[in-house]
Amino acid sequence: MAARQRPIELLAPARDADIGIAAITHGADAVYIGGPDFGARANAGNTVADIERLCAHAHRFNARIFVTLNTILRDDELEPARRLVWQLHQAGADALIVQDMGLLAQDLPPIQLHASTQTDIRTPEKARFLQDVGFSQMVLARELDLKQIRAIRAQVQQATLEFFIHGALCVAYSGQCFISHAHTGRSANRGNCSQECRLPYTVTDAAGHIIAHDKHVLSLKDNDQSANLRALIDAGIGSFKIEGRYKDMGYVKNVTAHYRQLLDAILDGDRGLQRSSSGRSVHFFRPDPAQNFNRSATDYFVNGRQDDIGAFDSPKHAGIPLGEVLRVGPDHFDVQITPEAGALHNGDGLTWWDLQGELNGVPINVARQLDAGDPLRWRLWPNEPMAGLKDLRKHTALFRNRDMAWDRQLDRPSAERHIGVQLRLDETGSGLLLTISDEDGHTAQVEQPMALQPARDAARAEQALRDGLAKLGGTDFRATEVDLALSQPWFVPASALNQLRRDAVAALAAERAANRQRLPRAVPVEPPVPYPDDTLTYLANVYNHAARDFYARHGVQVIGAAYESHEELGEASLMITKHCVRYSLSLCPKQAKGVTGVQGTIRAEPLVLKHGNDTLTLRFDCKPCEMHVVGSMRKNVLKQLAAEPLTFYRSRPA
């Protein structure tokens, strides 16, 4: 008996159902999308009807739809959340991505549960616990390296391990960032992060010396694991997740196609692996993630700590190198572009760095070649006055962060996806029998009674039969083989052959739908397994009494309330991160080891971040190599909550 192939899943984001459908078409095995409420992207919600429409499309290819219900919930939100889960299950959703353990105590339908990245899965013990309480898939912390992933895989055998491979990086361990709530009242755990990490900060040392001025020291480059897919598969990852539920259609098409092609190259060369959905995608363009918004790329900690993971100069998208300025005119400027850049177009977006190191940009109204015989020299008229284009001068290096030709290419249909089928035509005593079988082993048969007539031109009739049966355009299928099991190439009217083919395709689609099985819900281990710790602080994000009771059932003795409960009124760790500002600024004591005259003089003393009236302290825990960003809650945020009659879990009386 052949060994069972291991399924590998490409998981794409969707801001809405149309983007989700495009993700499936471009090769996603699964899509994650927000429902009407309780998703960790407050402005990326969708109706249940839209979820149902997306599920219907995805299920044709055995692709799956995961709905994010991954905020922490107040007590008064548990019942509305429970009702929503039933609606999503009835709409066809395959799994829920959740953070709040209070949901596990609700009367839920038999829908599969996935542990959100917000549950902060960094250790084998935490991952094993989540598997044992009923999670079938879990998103590991982005900060893990290959060795740590392998250690988790050794402890987690039933649940699928999921890992982010592309997109924006949260600087904090997911679920461990409270700066947004402390400064604005907008909770990241409630889907409304204000992205304080992307702001510029001035960094000073214990003596008040300025180390960095107005730098985005908490802003990271974007994640790109293109070179590490094989290593991640070998380490135990089964689901490869693209970040971006706020991203547009072009981003999802492009990045999904990019990773689909990379994964297919691996899967096609390894018989022990298989795609986790049906069909193959054909792309009508060459994917290039550099074309989308990005802050440059890093593979973060997968291969160990790296020197340069920060996007300190700007959180914006500088774009792809274009060329340089030749001369500046009163209402235009001339540029020399590189041969790799390609033509310029009206509407392209250009960027450059000014003398203060700030990124500037301008759209181009009109782009014309200076000389028809020279495709590298252009005259550009911007949509802003030249006087306002700061430090744009001769020899200024230019970048392009929007390419209109690229955008137009992805605005058009840019991929197709089809399931391979084999067709066999037999003759019967009363006519013809068409059998159609797909790559998943489903088969359907349709018989057409008719009087068979010999063909005047046998070769032409045979070709007409093959072409007519293979004509599957507009369906989910593509003919990989057409077998004519006939005593001779009979003449069959085109209308009869087309009807036979259409009926067979409809029968196969019905057979596939009838045999599709919903993902199973994992059964929790009984008696309840103990949680790895007996004490939980505000970092566990317990915000309702059902979550509190869940942890108590699993042996936790002390259960703190979530930061949003406003019990941590003094200074607290508002962010815990693997990113170290000292390391990035070459001030880490470990970096000084072995450096003559320096070793022992550099200590991991606190640093201070300042932005406007906000002051944060950086404290360094060198044993686990982590940084804590420490601060306190603004008074206006405290007043804001005090004015709202909300019901949630408090470990101390209000």
Automatic annotation (TrEMBL):
Keywords, ordered alphabetically: Hydrolase, Protease
Domain Peptidase U32 collagenase residues, every copy: 398-512
Protein name: Protease
One MF term in the entry's GO annotations: peptidase activity
GO BP annotations, alphabetical order: proteolysis
Origin: domain of life: Bacteria
InterPro entries: Pept_U32_collagenase (IPR020988), Peptidase_U32 (IPR001539), RNA/ubiquinone_mod_enzymes (IPR051454)
Organism ancestry: Bacteria, Pseudomonadati, Pseudomonadota, Betaproteobacteria, Burkholderiales
PANTHER family reported in the protein's UniProt record: 23S RRNA 5-HYDROXYCYTIDINE C2501 SYNTHASE (PTHR30217:SF10), PEPTIDASE U32 FAMILY (PTHR30217)
Membrane-spanning ranges: none
Species in which this protein is naturally found: Pseudaquabacterium pictum
